[in-house]
Design a protein that fits this description.
The structure is a homodimer of 477-residue chains.
Chain A: H1 4-13, H2 15-26, H3 38-54, E1 58-62, E2 66-68, E3 74-76, E4 80-85, E5 93-99, E6 119-121, E7 124-126, H4 130-149, E8 159-165, H5 175-181, E9 192-195, E10 206-211, E11 213-222, E12 228-229, H6 230-233, H7 240-248, H8 272-280, H9 285-292, H10 302-310, E13 315-321, E14 332-333, E15 336-345, H11 351-369, E16 374-383, E17 386-387, H12 393-406, E18 411-415, H13 421-429, E19 432-435, E20 451-453, H14 454-472
Parallel strand pairs in A: 5-8, 5-9, 9-19, 10-18
Antiparallel strand pairs in A: 1-4, 2-3, 4-8, 6-7, 7-20, 10-17, 11-15, 11-16, 12-14, 13-15
Helix pairs in contact in A: 1-14, 2-4, 4-14, 5-13, 7-11, 12-14
């Protein structure tokens, strides 16, 4: 890669421009979970398409239909942006997948800065969606821009396609169907799928070879026809909140054991090889504890901890809709309460089976209470886990690129979070996937004060440039 | 009461004016639980004082100090309005207690109309605070106005004092001290305390001789230093929400049995006499069920149901602050969650003892979980129950007034809700109290679509007029 110094120089000299573009993108409140923010999501997709079009890409905004709301109404899904740079049949073709929607964020959740105003503090760029996933998407775009700018000396070494969506944070609604529909058209000549929607485990760069899936449930308990005064009615009605707490308390034991029959039995056993890999990974339990601010973790050795983060399922209760949630006091008996909880999926769990296991279990637990209230369990997200072969040439290319840019061997890691579409890409196209993260280990995805460091954003762009160079030298299928 | 027809005519002919005043009062969002609404609370007290002053009352706005917020800051408490009409030592002196603060309400909670825009639908006046307690306070004011207007033929038969506060809905912060301070001044010549901060049990008018108290608790579980991504961290941390649900689930059994040791043991046993009184009360279980919209109640016979509504304690979990409570999905592990629950107090429970029982119990249950998270239990309201003697002449006067206006015998009932100050009035002044409700049984206090019917508002005013006439004939102490 003899022209590497030029490309590096190009990236370094465009740093401020990259940060400004990220600032423009973060300023759009593309929160896909909030229907009221849907116009912002549409605008975000338009901005993405515009950016790629201005670079000379062959760009389309693909209509993927509508989303049905719980009240029966429908709203348009954000269109999916596809783009193509280069169509040389002698070159490899990669398809970069990313998303530009974000998790909810409000200043009053405990952000130190306005979540939609990218704020640089000591080289960290704070803002909702900065790391998840706007900066990585932009880093791929800057990669293409850099090669284009230096076209005379080093042309884009592979054909690059993009699929950028706007519903990832709520389960990639509509994307599965679109991928299936484009299998024999847009995706037909793609050799590899590249995804950078995750982060490193430590300060050491990493390649990711697995993600957990996610089954997200609503458990709704409905009682009286409206909220009641707890003094006037308390003691005479069977309260939905009591029922809901009762059934939620049967999901998981204090020590983290999932109590839903069949879930633990489905999990693939931990192999000796895996155990050894986990042993070798750079991971400091003390710094992990201090980063999240707890005195004790669920497990106190590295292997158990990593295994339960990556390759075992877990249950989280996120919260309850319909109950009193404001500061202060209110003496209400909430009439209808909806718990939100999710179970992270791992091989060999199957979301369809999990849906039945959870529904049956909660219904049976609820039946034992003999409550007149009504329980309705629905699974609103059912995303499968994904697992790659770390011996695949794509990963060898990844190791070489990391070595070139950072001069270290990457950690081979899995991701506790979910990139719902990875499994679909694999199943539909039959092509191999690599996850090439550039986010930092402490970026605070989905939390208050999410950030992307300038270092990871800029060096990450260089990593992608190096990676395309490596991929160009893989044997064409 | 030979001038009764004139007074009735006066009230009927001023109906629209009364409704308009109620509309003006409901328009003020005097939500005492929300510190941001404190200016509205202050304005509400000013409006109340102004109204009483315009009627020629001797009015004071009594400064009762400041409220300390959880963050250590302080805000001014709404002043208490005192007023006096008449000081004839040959007459009885009554003191009407009421409040003009309200529970929280937002259109999106499920109100059919704007909660702060009094809306007349088929003779029902919908609005937050309409029944609790603005219309009853106004009905007492209209009572004085009516006697004043007809002064030439029928002067105010008793001296009337008012104590109107603005913090009732959050525990009457500061009022206890003020009552104690005014025991030998403003309250020194008061013979009876009249309170109309409750409702009838059915369509039959009622006199209320007891209320439950309320101990309101916050149980806070704090874990990581900030919210975490449930994919990235789920399985490695002991989640505060799991702990909180676990301890909440130990408060009450599915059948409504309170599980906190010592609570049930403290309750006064149900006497045969009480049992008989309950038997005689007009109360239709089927219409109660259909009103609140449930197919089954906690008990299916009248006596058990009324007893558990009025004279047994109950636990309600109102909600959780700090968890995800919005519609849609969010894959968060909340870092700090605060459950809000309350226990209604009855004779012979003692809030100080209950505080210790609950705190000790939750701490012991939490300790068994061996969680590294931190639990903090605080009691933010501790209001005592109140119980009167139904043989007292005040109640005989009440029966006579009800008979005169409605031509029926009133039900003698208790109230499941709390009027925190009743017990204080009794303890400090040593005077007798009567609760004379005019609110309807279906007014939806603290719920969506709270209302006061025109019928109850107007006939209730007539009841108060008749009641003052009856009280005037009680033997002066």
């Amino acid at each position: 890669m003899s022209h590497a110094p030029l490309l590096i120089l190009y990236v370094d000299s465009h740093q401020e421009e990259y940060v400004q573009t990220l600032r423009d993108w973060v300023a759009v409140e593309s929160d896909s979970s909030d229907v009221l923010k849907r116009p912002d999501c549409h605008r975000m997709m338009d901005m993405t398409a515009e950016k790629l079009r201005a670079m000379g890409g062959k760009v389309e905004l693909v209509d993927i239909g509508v989303q049905e709301l719980p009240n029966g109404q429908t709203v348009d899904l954000p269109k999916v942006v596809t783009a193509q740079f280069g169509s040389d049949p002698s070159k490899q073709t990669v398809c970069v997948y990313g998303h530009v929607d974000v998790q909810p964020a409000k200043l009053e959740d405990g952000w130190a800065t306005d979540p939609y105003n990218l704020t640089d503090i000591d080289g960290n760029l704070y803002g909702r969606g900065a790391s998840d996933n706007k900066a990585p998407v932009l880093a791929w775009i800057h990669t293409v821009e850099a090669y284009q700018a230096l076209k005379i000396v080093c042309d884009l070494p592979v054909n690059v396609k993009f699929i950028i969506e706007g519903m990832e944070e709520t389960g990639s609604n509509g994307l599965d169907a679109m991928i299936m529909a484009q299998r024999d058209s847009f995706l037909s000549d793609v050799d590899y799928i590249l995804i950078s929607d995750c982060g490193w485990l430590s300060r050491r760069p990493a390649l990711t070879y697995g993600t957990r899936g996610n089954c997200y449930f609503f458990a709704e308990v409905e009682g009286p026809k409206q909220d009641l005064h707890s003094g006037v009615y308390g003691g005479t009605v069977i309260e939905p909140m009591t029922d809901l707490i009762g059934i939620l308390d049967t999901l998981i034991s204090p020590s983290g054991k999932i109590l839903i029959p069949g879930i633990r039995e489905a999990v693939a056993p931990l192999s000796d090889e895996e155990w050894k890999m986990y042993q070798d990974i750079e991971f400091d339990i003390e710094s992990y504890k201090s980063k999240i601010g707890v005195s004790q973790l669920m497990y106190n050795n590295k292997v158990d901890l990593l295994a339960h983060r990556w390759r075992y399922p877990t249950v989280t209760v996120h919260g309850i809709e319909g109950a009193f949630s404001a500061p202060g006091t209110k003496t209400v008996i909430p009439a209808k309460v909806i718990a939100k909880f999710s179970i992270r999926q791992v091989p060999n769990m199957d979301p369809a089976v999990v849906k039945k296991q959870v529904t049956d279990y909660l219904n049976s637990v609820f039946a034992k209470r003999k409550s007149p209230n009504k329980l309705k369990v629905t699974m609103v997200i059912g995303a499968k886990p994904w697992l790659a072969d770390t011996k695949h040439p794509l990963y060898e290319a990844g190791k070489a690129a990391v070595k070139r840019v950072f001069n270290v061997e990457p950690d081979l890691i899995r991701e506790g979070g979910t990139i719902p579409i990875a499994k679909t890409f694999e199943d539909v196209t039959g092509k191999s996937i690599i996850m090439l993260p550039i986010g930092g280990f402490d970026d605070g995805l989905h939390s208050q004060n999410e950030k992307m460091s300038r270092y990871n954003y800029i060096e990450g762009t260089k990593l992608f440039i190096a990676y395309l160079h490596e991929v160009a030298h893989l044997k064409k299928n």
